[in-house]
Amino acid sequence: MTKHKFNYKWTLKDANFTKDKGTVFSCFSCGGGSTMGYKLAGFDVIGCNEIDPKMMDVYKANHNPRFSYLESITTFKDRDDLPPELYNLDILDGSPPCSSFSMAGTREKDWGKEKKFREGQKEQVLDTLFFDFIDLAKKLQPKVVIAENVNGLICGDAKKYVNKILIAFSEAGYFVDYRLLDASKMGVPQRRERVFFRAVRKDLYKGCFTDIFQSLPALDLVFNERPILFKEISDNTDESFNLPPRAGSLWDKCKKGKKLSSVEESNGSFFNELRVSQDEVLPTLTSQDKVYHSDIRRRLNNIEYFLATTFPVDYALNKTKSSYLCGMSVPPVMMAQIATRVYDQWLKEILI
After folding, report:
1. pLDDT tier at 27 (50, 70, 90 boundaries)?
2. pTM score, two decimals?
3. Which DSSP string do the residues of 71-127 spell out, in sequence order?
4. Phi, psi at residue 175, to the nearest 5°?
5. Residues 243 and 108 grouped into a single domain
6. Backbone angles phi, psi at 262, to 5 degrees
7. Same domain for 165 and 310?
8. Same domain, residue pair 180 and 293
């Protein structure tokens, strides 16, 4: 069986984080998915910014950051008391909230409106947070900026936002490009497509502008690792994630790999609920916990969520549901793959 570059079955207690590849600061850090990816790739993640206090508690419990800022990026970017370390970063990382652009959401109807990203949080115009993140990059001037978002950002009218993002990066002093990547080709046991922007500070590249993403410093982001099927991560150690009666009844009649809405008795409901197949790669796991086991009448359990999203299996949840934490986060192995390429092809070879 083909070996993957990064092991999706791992633990924090046994991990060896070398911290010798450079420094990273993570914005919109959530519970720490991207942070773990950078750590797996050998980077030193020195701090984070997050608006959700519950997610910040999870982050601190697992990462003990040197610097942490529990506030909106709209105020964080304007701070005048940031430590010198944040002005000497190798990478500024961020995953701006993306529900306004999700293909599963209301999209255009929500653009420009204030929304609460989660109950109890400050209302924000979610589709402008990306530009606040770029403002922070302009202020801190890290060598490289990496930003992640949903695939819906490059579909339909949302492409207009992409053009604005590219212009904003350029005005902030960066050459930038973006690529749609599929986590299932990167050693992650789920089909998760995400757009990754990667930007390099203009003064660090001396070549011709038109060559930057065609020749040097081109960043090879082609991954063709073996798909990981659900049967490789199916776990029977915790069978307590039982389905409610109505969903359970439909699960009984639903074919493996099909949505519960395909059952005639569903009456059009349960549209996004899915009974998975042992012999297929899991679909994108969201925070809504609507993916059910193929052979056991239950939701995916914590171990399956951790493995499917490449979180370490000993990750402290702090009473947060695994589906929410993992569904909201960048899979660590996905980020580790990208961070490794950034170091090998940019930071090590060209920019240092």
Report:
1. very high
2. 0.90
3. S-HHHHTT-S---GGGGS-SEEEE----GGG-TTS-GGGGTT-EE-SSTTSPPEEGG
4. -85, 140
5. no
6. -75, -15
7. no
8. no
The per-residue pLDDT for 348 is 86
Q: Is residue 2 part of a domain?
A: no
> Do the domain assignments include residue 76?
yes
DSSP line for 252-277: HHSPTTEEGGGSGGGTT--TT-EE--
Return the active site residues.
98
Output the average pLDDT for the chain: 89
Phi and psi torsions of 181, nearest 5°: -120, 150
23 — phi, psi (to 5°)?
-105, 150
DSSP state of 176: E
In contact, 85 and 23? CB cutoff 8 Å: yes
> Which residue range(s) make up the domain with 235?
230-326
| Residues 177-189 pLDDT 10s | 999 999 999 999 9
Q: Are 237 and 307 in contact (CB under 8 A)?
A: no
Please, are residues 200 and 217 in contact by the beta-carbon 8 Å criterion?
Answer: yes
Element (H, E) at 179: strand 174-182
> How many other CB atoms are there within 10 angstroms of residue 101's CB atom?
28
Q: What is the Cα–Cα distance from 178 to 125, expressed in whole angstroms?
A: 23
Identity of the amino acid at 80: D
In whole angstroms, what is the distance from residue 226 CA to residue 179 CA? 20
Distance CA 171, CA 163 (A): 12
Q: How many domains does the chain have?
A: 2
Q: Are residues 78 and 209 in the same domain?
A: yes
CA gap 60, 53 in Å, rounded: 10
332-342 vs 33-40: helix crossing angle, rounded to 10:
50
- Burial pattern 207-218, b for ≥16 Cβ within 10 A else e, equals eeeeebbeebbe
CATH number at residue 129: 3.40.50.150
Residue 329's pLDDT band, with cuts at 50, 70 and 90, is: very high
Q: Which two tokens stand for residue 249?
A: 């009844």
Helices assigned H by DSSP within the chain: 33-40, 53-63, 73-76, 129-140, 159-171, 245-253, 302-309, 322-328, 332-342
